[in-house]
Amino acid sequence: MWHDLLVVQIPIVEKILRTVAVYALILVLFRLAGKRGLAGLNTFDMVVVFLLSNVVQNAIIGNDNSLVGGAIGAVTLVVVNSLVTRWLARDPRAARVLEGEPTTVVRDGKLVPGALRELALRPSELEHAVRLQNGDNLSDVARARLEPDGQLLVTLKAAGQSATKGDVDELRERLAAIEHLLTTLAADRRPPH
């Protein structure tokens, strides 16, 4: 029993190389699949992710079912991911190549022709995302773009934006000034006693 748990059944270097190779393959596949795959996983996407993890499992572990072998694979994945993340944070060109660039999907309240088709997004998904960001519909949107990480950033037109605390404070100041002016005008119109 201890032998099966603790003895790695394939060379450690092979275990690390297998893990790095599968990581790189999955990275390329997700890059080719595009931003939409990260934007919001629907039922079909979840099925693919679960099956994908099962499909590549043997490519990572090989003929090794040991606890130590699994730990080596897990540590390798975390270290490689950390290194790639740090690299992307320091090198904008690498980030553009590996992650892509933002795609504008709405401009001045209208869908950008071909953008949804290119990203495999349905208009209903986009409309839902706009509502989540306080817009009522696409006509309220000045610009919306899908970021490489799958996040949709929506900028509402000025008329469609909610009032901020600063806006409310400014309104209160103006109302106070109007009240003061009305009080002054009313006092000026009173006949003398």
Automatic annotation (TrEMBL):
InterPro entries found in the cross-reference section: DUF421, UPF0702_alpha/beta_dom_sf
Organism domain of life: Bacteria
Chief location of this protein within or outside the cell: membrane
Gene Ontology cellular-component annotations: plasma membrane
TM region positions: 16-34, 41-61, 67-89
UniProt record similarity statement: Belongs to the UPF0702 family.
Its membrane topology: Multi-pass membrane protein
Keywords: Cell membrane, Membrane, Transmembrane, Transmembrane helix
Species per Swiss-Prot/TrEMBL record: Kitasatospora aureofaciens
Protein name as catalogued: YetF C-terminal domain-containing protein
Residues annotated as domain YetF C-terminal: 94-159
Annotated compartments: Cell membrane
